[in-house]
Write a structure and sequence with these properties.
- The chain is an all-alpha fold.
- Among the domains are: 183 residues, no CATH class; 36 residues, no CATH class.
- Helices cover 67% and strands 1% of the residues.
- The protein is built from 18 helices and two strands.
- A two-stranded antiparallel ribbon has the order 1-2.
- It is globular, with a radius of gyration of 23 Å.
- The two termini are 39 Å apart.
Length: 451
């Protein structure tokens, strides 16, 4: 066995590690639905697999730190691409200074910083197409496993109680599965579009399974986000080949309409029944108002990272106002404002805006369907955080992908005429020498990235 074959095996093993690492952070390996009762059934419980899965998560992070140390240049190259992201990340452990629960915020902040390193590894090790392939493999396996698990163990995988009949798969709640499967639809759809014909049928089959899971969860938010993202795919495709403002205006209109529809769907009872009814019918609007009132008391830096919703913390005032114990604000933008104030919200919004701006610039230059992935993921974050909270959480897949996607995008510009001529000269030279460049050159239509 020669050196090249050994190196090839090592690289394949590293991809397997990346795929497995993403699966670990989806939460499906805890098999929580097997041990935790459905909402409204009563009782409690925890999965015996939670601790082993946490250990796997830390092992994944540890390996990523080692691999980053072995490739410091590639790591430093991507780290500087999104300063707003790092402003947000560094606020999490520092927030112990003003937190109502200093040790808790410090511990969770350090854990979040560690989780971020796995996203940095993915961005520094793989280009965007490779990253999309890895995410597709990992999330495709997750979707198929969740589907088969529920068919094999319907007593665990299908909700009882309040949400009776809705699928939750191996996860703790139907909304958690809906959120995950709405995300899974993106990479599987894009991969099916640009994959070779021999793989296309399999990928479309996985996509169909994902769609079924979204429907079977009976989540209104999950369905609305999924439908919106699917409407955006052809519009982003048109955006790749056409100029003008018609398509961007249409995309903006879809965001506005879908956002309003999602909020209305999740808060239908208050519009119908008005105030003064049972808290179970109050929807999220009262929770949002009570949370915003608390933000006004400490607007700039919040109550400390993940400190607000602690049992003896400031959340008691919100719970008294809405008359039930909410685990979070059910809105990512409100939640981050409670944790890290308007400063933290500014960092997140600017990071998300950077993803949109660079994603659109990239989409204008590159023609591959894979280049739609950053824009679609940013859209997913924007839509889902209106009724759920997926912003900067420790050991959380959505945060890892935010880091990986954001840091995979550099500054984009078209090649100048002189750079095009230089590119052609290089390609002609290597073609004459029957060689390939030691490092890939950009295509004539490609984006050029500077750090």
């Amino acid at each position: 066995m020669n050196v090249f074959s050994i190196l090839s095996d090592v690289l394949k093993l590293e991809k397997v590690y990346a795929i497995f690492g993403i699966i670990v952070f989806t939460g499906i390996l805890t098999l929580s639905s097997r041990y935790v009762p459905s909402e409204g059934v009563g009782g409690g419980g925890t999965s015996p697999f939670e601790r082993p899965v946490v250990l796997l998560q830390y092992a994944t992070i540890g390996i990523s730190l080692i691999l980053l140390a072995l490739r410091p240049k590639s790591a430093f190259r991507v780290v500087w691409r999104d300063p707003f992201l790092w402003g947000l990340v560094l606020m999490t452990p520092i927030s112990f200074v003003w937190s109502d629960f200093p040790s808790f915020s410090l511990k969770r902040g350090i854990s979040t910083l560690q989780t971020t390193m796995f996203g940095v590894y993915l961005a520094s090790r793989y280009d965007r197409k490779e990253l999309l392939d890895i995410v597709t493999w990992a999330l495709g396996i997750t979707a198929v496993f969740s589907f088969l698990y529920t068919l094999a163990l319907p007593g665990s995988g299908i909700e009882k109680g309040i949400h009776s009949g809705a699928w939750r798969g191996p996860l703790v709640h139907k909304n958690v599965l809906a959120q995950l499967t709405a995300l899974i639809s993106l990479p599987t759809c894009l991969a099916a579009i640009h994959s070779p014909p021999k793989y296309r049928k399999r990928l479309w089959a996985v996509f169909i399974i994902t769609v079924l899971l979204v429907l079977l969860t009976r989540s209104k938010t999950g369905l609305m986000v999924f439908l919106t993202l699917m409407m955006l795919v052809p519009l982003f495709k048109i955006l790749q080949s056409r100029g003008g403002i018609a398509i961007p205006v249409m995309i903006f209109a879809i965001f506005v309409v879908s956002s309003g529809t999602t909020i209305l769907a999740e808060n239908w009872e208050p519009f119908l029944y008005g105030l003064g009814k049972d808290p179970s019918l109050s929807g999220r609007t009262y929770l949002w108002q009570a949370s915003i009132d608390m933000i006004r008391l400490r607007p700039w830096f919040g109550y400390g990272y993940q400190a607000f919703w602690q049992g003896t913390g400031a959340a008691n005032q919100v719970w008294l106002a809405i008359r039930y114990v909410a685990p979070h604000s059910h809105n990512g933008f409100i939640n981050i404002s409670l944790d890290l104030g308007l400063v933290g919200l500014f960092f997140f919004v600017m990071s998300l805006l950077t993803m949109f701006v660079r994603g659109i610039a990239l989409l204008r230059i590159e023609k591959s369907p894979a280049e739609m992935w950053p824009l679609l993921y940013a859209s997913f974050l924007l839509l889902y955080n209106q009724t759920e909270s997926t912003i900067i959480q420790h050991n959380n897949l959505f945060w890892i992908l935010h880091v990986a996607v954001s840091l995979s995008l550099g500054y984009v510009r078209k090649l100048s005429p002189s750079e095009v001529r230089e590119y052609r000269d290089k390609q002609a030279y290597f073609a004459a020498m029957n060689e390939t460049p030691s490092s890939p050159s950009p295509s004539l239509n490609s984006a050029k990235f500077s750090e």
